[in-house]
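Second attempt. The first submission of histidine kinase had a stray character pasted in from the spreadsheet, which I only caught after the job came back as garbage. Lesson logged: always re-copy from the clean sequence file. Corrected sequence (443 aa) follows.
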Amino acid sequence: MEIAHEMINDFLEKRKRQIMKKLSVQNAERVRNISLILITLSVLLFLTDYLNKIFGKWVYKRAYIALFQSHIILLVGVLFYFLVYKTIRNKDKEVFYNIYSYSFIIFIVNFCAYVSGSIDQEIHGEITLYVLSCFFIASYLYMNPKFIIFLYSQTYAVLLILILITQNDPEIRQGHILNSTLIAILSGFMATTISKLMQRDILYKLKLEEMVEARSNDLIQKQKEVNRLQQFNLIGQMAGGMAHEIRNPMTTVRGFLQLLGNKEHHKKEYNYFELMISELDRANGIIEQFLSLAKDKVIVLQKKSLNEIILKLSPLIEANLSFEQNLRMDLQDIPKILLDEKELCQIILNITKNGCEAMPNGGNLTISTYQQANNVMLEIQDEGIGIEPEVLDKIGTPFFTTKENGTGLGLAVCYNIVKKHNAIIKLHSNAKGTKFTIIFSIC
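This time the job returned cleanly.
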């Protein structure tokens, strides 16, 4: 139960990281756009100040000087953030985007709060600048709810202090306080709502992407399975035609070789006869593998104990092990399942033999069985050199082999037998070894 709970928490945490990463990247892009707009606006403000001075409209009052200084602060500050974005845009790290976006928002809203609260009301009138900045940031950027509370609380405090200091008229001051309070609350509510909607939208898109990816992978797997079955069918047809045409003359030749090899005057050449017979047997074995892939070959399924079959085979498996190799078994309590014992033995012996050959420097060959939900799992794992990733998908394909003298039929036979058992075979391989997992259904 605890493991399942941890898995759910890990999944939710992963989802949250994915969503927040997308949001932070989007915010960084939008902040970049705001920076460009504000840089342009700052240039226009400077131009306006200059024209006002030329036409004699500039008044050297405290409010006008403060306004001019605020234009300088805005240009320098926004330019700084724009240059920061240029340096981090190629870094795929959420923390950089978040720091950049959040610090920019704090700067802009606090700047507007300062200007709105400290400059003479004759110039700005009401708290228009602060109102516009609050609503603009709330609707345009998708911020974390905790940050939203922090942002509007501290900027509201800054504005409130400045209004109390600079505004002497109690009625106007009271109106400004009421307006700023409503603006901060409404902006916070709107920003939170939009942020949650965006998170849901991204979650929906992530689910769609995963569904499309899963669907694509499923179609690819089905296509691979169709191609594999087509190859099996082709080989089955070939095997059916070859069996009688080739095996009969081979049996005759083998018989005569045995007869001639036992003649007294051929005793000196006995080793040659033995070699020819072994090669015929090898050719006959390949034909047997062809026949194993035949489409019409029937398997007989009976309720059998998988653990008992493995224990019976253990002496044969150990016979394939070298001196530096060890056989380990982890056979848990599992129910009996429908199996063709002879065919299953072929699978186990074939895969374990491959596992032994994959460990030239020694290692452990582990056979495990256990129950998972309504399935019985058989795992055969070696500690060999592993299989190259580029050829992993080709494993089990007829005639494909990584061995110098292999036929590429051994694992193809195993895959075919597994298919006839209505089971699934999965393969995982890396530099530390290879693991075959065969999943049998209990029902």
